[in-house]
Amino acid sequence: MVYQQEMLKISPQVFLYDARLPVPQLPAGAIALPQHPGNIFGDGSHPTTRLCAGAVDFLCRQHAFSGVLDVGTGSGVLARIARARAARFIVGTDINPAALMAAQSNAALDSHPVDIAILNTAPDHWGARFDLVVANILEGPLRELAPSLSQALGEGGLLLISGFTRLQTPGLLELFSSYGLTYVNASQLEEWVLLMFRRPLSNQLIL
User: Fold this and answer.
1) Residue 28 maps to a domain
2) CA–CA gap between residue 13 and residue 2 (Å, rounded)
3) Which residue in 24, 38, 64, 97 has a CA-CA distance of 20 to 30 Å to 202?
4) Domain assignment present for 151
5) Which domain holds residue 108?
6) CATH no. for residue 51?
7) What is the pTM assigned to this prediction?
């Protein structure tokens, strides 16, 4: 089928496709998200988007998250993956008004009863509300938002950060660990890195 050539595989179980085309046939368990063409915030092919998409999809298939926050949402794809995988409360934030419009427009393409709140707000606006936070932004904004990102996590919550290279990783690892987060693991695609942290449970804190 010709339209299947228009699909973009951004993780093992997540595909994007042109919203003007029919819904493609998919492997069992996979999801396909329609996108408006010509998105200035990327088509999902950047390595950091692929790293984050794979991690969000995998985690959401393993656990039913009550709250997911996508910081620097851009086209909204990470928030939409979380929604497709049954997260119950999803927020996408961005400081760029055009990104907010793009994310809202793409999210409206999904036939889904759960809304995604797409806003220009600080990550900790809701307090420690989220059990999964993902921030795919550059090193500078990650450093600036580190306190707010850590404060958005509830106990036991996971934080995924990407948008930086291997050479920038040690400093970010040290910085986010200084906010009481526990390093879990790292993934790399080309020169780009994703780090995962966890907010310890209160009874696991080391005094």
Assistant:
1) no
2) 20
3) 64
4) yes
5) 44-204
6) 3.40.50.150
7) 0.93
